Amino acid sequence: AQSVSQHNHHVILSEAASLELGCNYSYGGTVNLFWYVQYPGQHLQLLLKYFSGDPLVKGIKGFEAEFIKSKFSFNLRKPSVQWSDTAEYFCAVNAGSGGGADGLTFGKGTHLIIQP
Amino acid sequence: DSGVTQTPKHLITATGQRVTLRCSPRSGDLSVYWYQQSLDQGLQFLIQYYNGEERAKGNILERFSAQQFPDLHSELNLSSLELGDSALYFCASSAWGPITDTQYFGPGTRLTVL
Q1: Which residues in chain A have Cβ-Cβ distances shorter than 8 Å to B99?
Q2: What is the pLDDT of residue A97?
Q3: If we measure between CA atoms, which residue out of A89, A103, A115 comes closest to residue A22?
Q4: Contacting residues for B110 by C-beta, under 8 A, at least 6 apart
Q5: What is the pLDDT of residue A31?
Q6: Omega into A79 within 30° of 0, i.e. cis?
Q7: Residue A84 has pLDDT above 50, yes or no
Q8: Residue B2 contacts by C-beta under 8 Å, 6 or more apart in sequence?
């Protein structure tokens, strides 16, 4: 079974600071990787996803993530954060077996607070 | 707005009771997923339906069951409720079910068991 760990549960940054949120997964096979964001009072929204190909994926709102297979990692980055990035961020994985379907396995989330 | 709707938004009930949560997927989506979000367990996958049939099961308790109807809406039934079932229950939908599909999440139903 897959598992996902997000290293930082709470992160506080000032506006314009650079952001990197860690995500490591444990699964021996091919995986699909996702970052979701949950703004206060809103539903989960997809930021970006990786299935195959270029390990550097770009998502919405200036976010990007890099898949490093050797490190089982999929860290989320943004060069300059804004106050509106305050939210809960979830890393998720499902098995890329290519057949059948499965739900997402989520990390515990990182609560990001951006101070003006 | 993701296009996935869930009702009710909030539900307060007592231990031992049974409740039904409802989810309408995005127009055209065939696959529905249910997740539970609690403080101690985080976000956990419960069950998936695809075009009316159960497709995958996660950490769903035997007291919980779900179904997807011909119009593709889904219901999650929770019975013999315990205090620990208090959580946010999310529904998600995707176009047809392959694991590369993006899942779109609804706003959730907050269940409080007293």
Answers
A1: 32, 94-98, 100-102
A2: 54
A3: A89
A4: B9, B10, B11, B87, B88, B89
A5: 84
A6: no
A7: yes
A8: A43, A45, B26, B104, B105, B106
Copy the structure tokens of residue A72: 């089982």
Nearest residue of A to residue B36, measured between CA atoms: A106
| Single-letter amino acid code for the residue at A76 | L
User: What is the mean pLDDT of the segment spanning B60-80?
Assistant: 97
Closest to B25 (Cα-Cα) out of B13, B14, B34, B16 = B34
Percent of chain B predicted with pLDDT > 90 = 81
Q: Report the gap between the CA of A31 and the closest CA in chain B (Å).
A: 10
Average the pLDDT over A31-41 and give the result. 92
Q: Which of A23, A46, A102, A111 to mutate to test the interface with B (most CBs of B within 10 A)?
A: A102
- Alpha carbon A62 to its chain centroid, in Å, reads 13
CB contact at 8 A, A100 and B56: yes
- Quick check: B31 and A101 CB within 8 A? yes
B55 touches A: beta carbon within 8 Å: yes
Q: CB contact, 8 Å: B4 with chain A?
A: yes
Q: Which DSSP state fits B22?
A: E
Of B56, B90, B102, the CB nearest to A100: B56
pLDDT of residue A29: 78
Whether residue A99 is predicted with pLDDT greater than 70 in this model: the reply is: no
Residue B88 has pLDDT above 80, yes or no: yes
- Residue A21: predicted pLDDT: 97
Stretch 67-106 of chain B: residues touching chain A, C-beta under 8 Å? 90, 92, 97-106
